[in-house]
Amino acid sequence: MQHLDLQVIRRALAWSVAGQRIWLCTVLATYGSAPRAPGSLLAVNAAGQWIGSLSGGCVEEDFLERVAEGAFFAAVNVVRYGAGDDPRSRVSLPCGGILDVLVEKFEPDCEVQAHLREVESALLGQRRLIRQVDLASGARSLVADCEQGVRIERDSERVRIRVGAAQRLLLAGYSSVAQACAEFAVGLGFEVILCDPRDEVLEGVVLNGVEIRRQLPSVFIADGGCHRDTAVVALTHDPRIDDLAMMEAVRTDAFYIGVMGSLQTSQKRFERLRRIGGLGEPELARIHAPIGLNLGSRTPSEIALAVLADIVRIRSGIARDQL
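Structure tokens predicted for XdhC family protein:
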């Protein structure tokens, strides 16, 4: 699956290399009901060609008309859609929401192309970056992103946008809980990959929007299947799958690593990982076990809700004591 943001940046880069001016639009904030999340991208060239999405239709149409009329000629603009008080916005969102959009004009030069290539590398999972945009001058810079947090940060002077690969959920082994997790995660916009070598377990399994790999999760992880935007969860109760996945996952940059089991089962697993896997306390400290938030979950769907809620918590940089 190719993450839509990556498609947008690659097309924008191709247009720039071809000598075309482009406008890169980023959803900064949504209020009320809005179709697209903060960070969503759209790119437009001077010929009116576009890729990406801000709202699912109405905002894009208005924006394209404005570009054709010669609007947005400044290096940077912030436009509010849906509130009715921004003269550059002529639409109200049918869902009643409000959308703030950052509009950047990019000239077709080497500096812009270098910037877009760096963003492309981050979207490919090679590293994570924060893209900083000065709201007065339009000046852009990139800095390394070394922690989790909200995707967009904004004050009166600048915008900071986290750039990384598509959020990935790697399910180590199939179970009824893994199925529920996959369904939740697809709805949340994760790229979901399920690894399980057991043909008898996968027989008849259908998971829409999920990539199924018939191999040991530990092998997939060792072959580079994780990046810094990956959450690895093991939900099978089979130590041959769960333990090996944990041993490999802690050697990666995955932002979340968790394994299902009671407190007693988790303590026994940690002892095995120390004794057999040779893991030390820093590696074990990265593993969430028991997995998920303590919601009193019992059913597969309730456990999956607790797991995904904890993953979203970590991804958003929120400590447990802040809940």
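The radius of gyration is 22 Å.
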